Amino acid sequence: MNIFDSHCHLDDPSFESDFKDVLHRAAAAEVYRMLVVGTDRNTSDRAVALAKGHSNLFASVGVHPHDARSCTEETLAHLMTLASDPKVVAWGETGLDFNRMHSSRKDQERWLIRQLEVAETLDLPLIFHERDSQGRLLEILKARTCRPAVIHCFSGTEAELARYLEMGFYIGVTGIVTVSQRGALLRQMVPSIPANRLLIETDAPYLTPTPQRNQFRRNEPAFVREVLLKVAEVREEDPEALAEQVWFNTCSLFRIDPSTI
User: Is the pTM of this model over 0.85?
Assistant: First the structure.
């Protein structure tokens, strides 16, 4: 199988001591490509540096809603410069998070809208983070001509899923789908995601799937294989066929040649 972890944070300090081993374990699990996602200026710098140093890594740049409070026009200018590198294939992760409120609603909405404008200028697909925005993300996106995008770590309702799909978005599924209680609702919705709109991701080092979460606190790209297998089980599909479809979906969204490994 060819498996693509469409969202991870390999720039995280927890990977510094065994980074090469992490990549080797990913390859052993047939995870041959990974997208390292930026969340602010510093993480975007590191994501791009990693992608430039490894042929199987790609990068995105952006400002996470948690970090909106510290975003400036100078920050966006720096990220736009980073985005000129061919290994940068998306803008994000950006969006709204009204759960933890590390940044005010005003700051989150202001810098989300600016990043939508920047992504349009740069002709880049988007990676959206959404948590407890009570439909506000959809309101903002509906008011604009939105670019191709993925809803990272989808955890919304059936109605929200339907609206995202109507807008042409891809849906990112994480290790939550493997967790008994927390993933129950997601497992109910996974079969209704069209095959050509499905992405899988780890969000490493977070959201370790079952059964690895019983042994390891840190998630890593190799474990996205468990996400694929659980999604295939829930959808009653052949894992190899699903892997091929998801590989193609991911490469299509991020405009990466699917035939080059």
Answer: yes
